[in-house]
Each structure stands twice: as C-alpha cells, then as structure tokens.
Amino acid sequence: MGRILLDLETLSQAVDNGFTDTLSILIDLFKLAGKNRRYEYIEIPSQLGMILRRVLIKPKEVIDLISEILQMGFDRRERIRTIKYKGKDVKEKQVYYINNNFTGYSIYYDPRKYYFNIMCQHSSILGKAKTEIVQDIKNLFQCELGVEDKYIQNLDKTIKLCRIDFKRDHRYIDEQNLSLIKAIVEIAPDTIVGANYEKKDEKDEHPEIDNFDDIEYMKKFKSESNKTAEFVVYDKFLERLDKFDKGLITHEELEQYQRVIRFEVRIKNGKLNSLKSDKKWALDKDIDNYKEESVANELFNYYAEQVFFKEPFFRLDVAKRKIRDLDITPYKKKTFRELLNQINEKGYTRAKEEYKYPSSFNSHIKELRDLGINPLTFKETWTDGKGKRHKTTYTSIPNFIQKENCIIEDDYIIDSKYWELVRQNNSTKKVIDTS
C-alpha cells in the first residue's frame, strides 16, 4: 500500500479533460532578439508635401533572426482583406508566411507586426500546463526552426496568450437526431450578448471553398468587431473528412469523429484583454489561468447558453402538452403555446421582433424556462438528406451543449508536471490512498 501527500487543488491543475481544443500564442520577435520596440517620426512625401509618420525601427538583429527562421519551410501567402479607412471599406493585399509542417502546430508570421502566431493544436496541449507547453515551443524553435541558443533564453518573456478555444462534442444517434439538431440551430437566437454578435453561415467566411455545403460548418455566432469571441457549431466528422481527403489526417483520426457535432467557444485577444480588468474575472492572460476547468466551463456556458439555453429540447406538441398540464391560468397557457408556435415557425429572433407583448417577451421566456421548457422546440416531422419527410419519433432530445450530454475525454495526468506543481504549491494537503 502506498500513501503519499496530494494537494487536491494542485491535482486539479494537472488534469486536463480535453475541454481546451486549441490555443494560440504570440512570440514577440523583438524581445526574442533581445531588443525593445522603438518608433521614430520620419518625413515622407505626400500630396500635401512632406509629412511626419511614426515608423517602427527594425534593428539588424531582428531582421536577421526572422530571415533565419523563414528559411525553415515557411510558405509565402497573399490574401485580400477588407479594412476600415476613414469610415469606408478598403481592400488591401496582405502578405503573411505560414508553416504547417510540424505535427500539432501551425505557425504564422505577419511582416507588418513582427510577431509569430503559433497555434497549438489539441494533441500538443492535452494534459499540459504552461511550463510544458512553453518547453515544447522552445524545442520546436531550437530543433526544427534552428533558432540559436542565445535567443531561446528570451522565449519565456516573449510569449503571451492571444486566443484559446474551448470545445464540447456531442455524438448524435442517427440521421433523424441530426436533422432535429440542425433545425434547432436554425431557429436559435440570431443575436447574443446584447446584439454584439450575429449568427452567420461559416460559408460566408470562406468563399474560396467551392464544396462548403458538404463540409457543413453549420453556424457561427460572430462578434461584429471580430475581436472578442465566437461561438461556432459545425459537423466535426465532415470537417475531418475534408482534411482526410486532402491527406492531412489518418483514417483513425477521421473515424473517432463519426456522428459528432462540435460546439466551440473561441476566446480571442480582445476578450482576453477585457477579462484582465473585469471585476468578476481579473484573469491575467496566462495559459494556466485559462486551462482551469472551472474557467473553461464558465466561459463556454456564458456564450453557449445564450444560444441554446440549458433545458432539454421537446417536440412542439409535447411541449404544448406540458403547458396544458401546468397549474397556471388558461390565459398564460394560451400565451405560452402561441409563443412556442411562433418561435418554432419563425425562429427566436423574428418571433421576438413580432411578439404582440414586446415588453413581456423576455419575462415570458424566463417563465417557460423556470417551468423546465426550452423555448426552442422541434417539429413533428423531419426531412432526410434526400428531401423526404418523415414523422418525428423523438419526443425530446437532451440539450446537446450541456457537459453531461457531451463526449468527455479520459482524464490525463502528466506525472512530471504534477510533481513540479507539488513542489511549487504547498497549500492545504490531504492524505490519499494510492494503493
């Protein structure tokens, strides 16, 4: 029998249930080269004559470092992006460099900003805390990109978290189940978070993909500013199938996502910055802060539940029968039945806009939910992939964003990280029997 002292708080930091999908970090190439960013005003010609413009001074050490790294398998890409200039949309050509040759990582370099953006994929961060992730990136820079040792020692202070994605996966049962999920996605609110977000087809974001309907990125709830957060719903198997067809993943990696719908909350740099000063959160942009399961759950729920709420989804006729059996006034019963009909037919947003009691819409929704009825319902018929209609046999389906209805990966404990944390954190201990 073995008995060791375990810190339960420390243990929770060492466990990763797979809720973090990917994270992105920025590497400041000025700091990596041991230089500070410095700007100077210089005179440049214009239609109005010579004007002063603030420009970034680029030391030789920084240029040499970038040149060395870019020789290691980076491809030059160009794309047209739309920016706002003096209140107007202006299209400009953007140049960037990308390297996808390293398993578990995608590395982007933007020559306008002198940062590397490293996207760490799920496989490269599962079960790892910040120190291990940073060490992996050091190894990547040193062994794969050929960065000299004198630069590696600066890497710790150059890294900052700029995006983290939290995921939940729901495995649907059959074609009918998938059809009902899609129907609920379609009638869900078009706007969330005080109308700062709009529901869009992901296809609008990727005009270069001809067969996008086959990939089926279902919906994206996207900030108009594109700087805070996104909530995305898509068919994970079809997304992986596209990658498999391009030879990017193995058949085994494809098969594990059979019948899976992915729900993903993407916390971007703007939201990370605002959470630092938020009185409730006061979260530094530290990887370990955001890999805490409680933080991941709360942030995920904050966005996802504004779209799909918490309650299970009922077939419309079943939901109306539940209302009929409630101990409330006949007038309330009629009001609630009509409200469910309108949302089911028109969608949540349009039903709200056209509701005959506009000042009472939110309170009526709350009353329904307090009674255990989700305002989003599905119809008594469903349509298969060939366009044929069938009678809906489901009377209800679980709320697919709730954690208990999602696929949870096995717990992973990284022993080396655990013992490192034990040494660092000598808070309250408890004796655990590990026999």
Could you explain the architecture of this structure?
With 435 residues, the protein is an alpha+beta fold. The chain has a domain at 21-29 and 60-153. The chain is 37% helix and 29% strand. The chain has an eleven-stranded antiparallel sheet. A two-stranded antiparallel sheet has the order 1-21. Helix 15 (316-324) packs antiparallel against helix 16 and helix 16 packs across helix 17.
TL;DR of this structure?
The protein is an alpha+beta fold and 435 residues long. The protein is built from 19 helices and 21 strands. Helix 1 runs antiparallel to helix 19 (415-424) and helix 16 packs across helix 17 (348-354).
* Spatial extent as radius of gyration: 26 Å
What's the number of helices? Answer: 19
The residue-averaged pLDDT reads 84
**What fraction strand?**
25-35%
- Counting helices, strands and paired strands, the structural category is alpha+beta
- Spatially, the strands of the biggest sheet line up as 6-7-8-9-3-10-15-14-13-12-11
Which geometry do the CA atoms define? elongated
Q: In terms of per-residue confidence, which ranges show pLDDT below 50 for 5 or more consecutive residues?
A: 1-8, 10-14, 411-419, 427-435
Question: What's the count of strands?
Answer: 21
Distance between the termini: 5 Å
Instruction: Report on the biggest sheet.
Output: 11 strands, antiparallel
Assign a percent range to the helix content: 25-40%
